Amino acid sequence: MSLLAKAQQPDSNGRIQHVTPESAGWGYVGFDAYLLKKGQTLKLSSGDKELCLVLVAGFASVKTRHAEFPNLGKRLSPFERIPPYSVYVPHNDEVEVYADSDLELAVCNAPSQGNLPARLIAPEDVGVEHRGKGRNQRLVHNILPDTQPADSLLVVEVYTDEGATSSYPSHKHDQKDSPDETYLEETYYHRFDPEPGFAMQRVYTDDRSLDECMAPYNRDVVTVPRGYHPVATLAGYDNYYLNVMAGPVRLWKFTWEKDHAWVNSDKYPRV
Known about the structure:
By secondary structure, the chain is mainly β. It has one helix at about 20-25; strands spanning about 5, 15-20, 30-35, 40-45, 50-55, 60-65, 70, 85-90, 95-100, 105-110, 120, 125-130, 140-145, 155-160, 165, 170, 185-195, 200-205, 210-215, 220-225, 230-235, 240-245, 255.
């Protein structure tokens, strides 16, 4: 099974990506991406899942059974590098999204049995941090981290400049009964500036029973069922990706690959 899901032409609802637990061969994470035209309406049912709707680019108004969030949006491109508007939707709810402009919408989902209400995640609610040093720097927007309420979902977006790496040093979170890791499945929704760009992403385990290298292009999705998963950008193209993670325990704990953990130390950048 390929770990790379290529972007498709929009269907009648504008959907260009559709990753389910069944298609990915795992148990928790689902991901959809939509390109809606101004004036288009998208209707969704959450069923037994909780949703996090992320306005990747454009403006929208969102309604659920018990809440309305009109006139959302702050950026026309993710590469404006300002936090997005997002909406958390609980299970057993109905959602209507009206595109107030051309809209790129990500719909993240994972199992839920809780009783949280629908809520707006405004840009000022998003934690912003800079990680790494040297050629391993990135800008991070923590949209739905494990410090904020949800049942399963963790959602974050990351910016990596041309020629730099991210999700690095190589790390993994695939152990269910470990004091050092939590089991979290993960998707990467990639965007590039300019759009013809691509990155290199490798997904691999210590024993190399999984070892796959991919070249995701604009709006492609990489699925990470287990193992390490670093990303390297190429000259001329900045990279954005939206990460969705979920598992049986809603906590982000990971371990570094020992061979490359030194990149976190004072030895790097080297003179």
